[in-house]
Design a protein that fits this description.
The chain is mainly β. The chain folds into two domains: 5-44 and 371-451, no CATH class; 51-367, Tachylectin-2, Chain A (5 Propeller). It has helices spanning 5-9, 19-25, 36-39, 107-111, 123-127, 398-408, and strands spanning 14-16, 49-58, 69-72, 76-80, 92-98, 119-122, 134-137, 141-144, 151-160, 165-170, 176-181, 193-195, 198-201, 208-216, 222-224, 229-235, 238-239, 245-250, 256-261, 280-287, 290-296, 318-325, 340-346, 360-367, 369-372, 415-419, 422-426, 437-441, 446-451. Strands 12, 13, 14, 15, 16, 17, 18, 19, 20 and 21 form a ten-stranded mixed sheet that branches. The protein is globular, with a radius of gyration of 23 Å.
């Protein structure tokens, strides 16, 4: 077999495919080595498989206090803080952390080191006056002016002296560049997300997405073009009724939208006596002019696990927050992998040193790649755990990965099977017609695909 250019680039991975299987394998895809940038191509960006949390129940005093939002550029994380209140000083409203710094235990040290690349803006230290006279920053997003190359953080700003606003902050200095009052269209704004030059947001209890087109003034300052256009969020043929919208993000191809919902109260999933308080991640797919609900996370079971429950005490209140999509399967971010990253905040009201409170956070990570490794050890007979395709519970055969995935009904978002070296005795590898599934090589070595004996 002639070795492809891609194989030479990707550590000489070779696939041996007997002629007896070509008729079925070609209906899936040609097995060629791919780098991380091409793995999660359009149609394969539906991250739903939970990989764990990092940070995991981490507390770093003021840096994670009332954290609300998350986004990124090519090399940095950006986070937004929460609400300015008397007695809570300093209040961090925006901060930037290079991707190579460990979010679990490196942020505080990075903020104290001018050479680290970390940066922040606080209300009382840097702004003097509140940006836009607003006390609350929600879930944020990053965008770049393609003509000037300058990057900006778009910030939903509420609890303002008047109205609600979208603020645009310089991604280098974190300083406020411009702001737009949108109170003529929205009475509340807790999050925003950007796709194809449009800022999307919603109000807390409505099934609509408001879309504001980003434009630039003659001097390159970002603003919006005027009144928004409105699209519907649907569940089947009905309007989507879940409320308490906290965060959102789009996949790079713009076909999927993740919405994070729920507020802090005792319980998991549907909380207390409020049936609208569903603490979940919801995946929507663009269908015509509407966004149709594909699936929502579970509070207790894999694969799409977003666990928010905890033992109740007077200090612990877990609340879903922001989300961002960033392929970090290349090892750049310590302790982090996957493509979808979603915050969970523990609203902690007990005293913490010089600060009024020290909130804990979880950053939960998700992928659309199922791991297949024929050399993975068997589970002990007394512990018949199901396999989900994570690094610690990979599928042992390609056919079992495909079958399990079909049972879970996740293929509407695209599925990638990451095949690790070894010999696979496979016979039935034909997926359902039109299903978005592809197989790609992972690791170093040779993958043999042989007919089942």
């Amino acid at each position: 077999m002639k070795e492809s250019k891609n194989n030479k680039i990707n550590k000489q991975v070779l696939f041996i495919i007997p002629l007896l299987l070509l008729f079925s394998l070609l209906s899936v895809m040609t097995l060629t080595a791919q780098d991380s940038n091409s793995l999660f191509s359009p149609g394969f960006q539906g991250a739903y498989l939970a990989l764990g949390s990092h940070p995991n129940d981490e507390e770093e005093s003021l840096w994670y206090r009332d954290i609300q939002g998350i986004t990124h550029d090519d090399d940095n994380w950006y986070f937004s803080g929460g609400k300015v209140e008397d007695g809570y000083h300093p209040t961090i409203l925006l901060f930037k952390v290079p991707v190579g710094i460990d979010l679990d235990d490196g942020v505080a040290a990075g903020m104290d080191d001018p050479s680290s690349g970390c940066a922040y803006r606080s209300w009382d230290k840097d702004f003097g006056e509140l940006p836009g006279d607003c006390k609350h920053f929600g879930d944020i997003d990053y965008f770049k002016n393609s003509e000037t190359g300058l990057g900006y953080i778009a910030v939903p700003m509420s609890d303002c002296a008047s109205g609600v606003k979208i603020g645009f902050f310089n991604s280098i200095t974190l300083g406020l560049v411009s702001e737009v009052d949108i109170s003529a269209y929205q009475s509340s704004i807790g999050w925003l997300a950007i796709s194809d030059g449009v800022i999307y947001s919603s109000m807390n209890s409505e099934p609509y997405l408001y879309g504001y087109t980003i434009v630039y003034t003659t001097n390159g300052t970002p603003t919006i073009s005027g009144a928004p256009f409105i699209t519907m969020m649907m569940e089947g043929t009905d309007e989507y009724e879940v409320r308490h919208h906290q965060g959102g993000t789009f996949t790079p191809d713009g076909s999927l939208f993740y919405l994070v919902t729920g507020y802090f109260l005792l319980g998991d999933g549907v909380v207390g006596d409020d049936p609208t308080n569903v603490r979940r991640i919801h995946i929507f797919k663009k269908t015509g002019s509407e966004w149709q609900l594909l699936k929502r996370s579970s509070g207790s079971t894999l694969p799409f696990l977003y666990e928010t429950n905890s033992e109740w005490d007077e200090w612990r209140h877990r609340e879903p927050e922001g989300a961002t999509y960033w392929d970090l399967n290349n090892g750049r971010a310590p302790g982090v992998s996957g493509e979808l990253h979603v915050l969970l905040l523990n609203n902690d009201t007990q005293s913490c040193g010089d600060y009024m409170d020290c909130d804990n956070i979880w950053l939960k990570h998700y992928t659309s790649m199922l791991r297949v490794d024929c050399e993975a050890p068997d589970f002990p007979l007394l512990l018949p755990f199901p396999r989900f395709g994570r690094p610690d519970d990979p599928f042992q055969t390609i056919s079992s990965a495909m079958a399990a995935d079909l049972e879970k009904g996740v293929r509407d978002t695209g599925v990638i099977l990451g095949i690790y070296p070894g010999t696979y005795n496979e016979d039935q590898l034909i997926p359902l017609e039109g299903e978005p599934v592809k197989m790609v090589p992972r690791g170093n070595g040779t993958v043999h695909l042989l007919p089942e004996e």
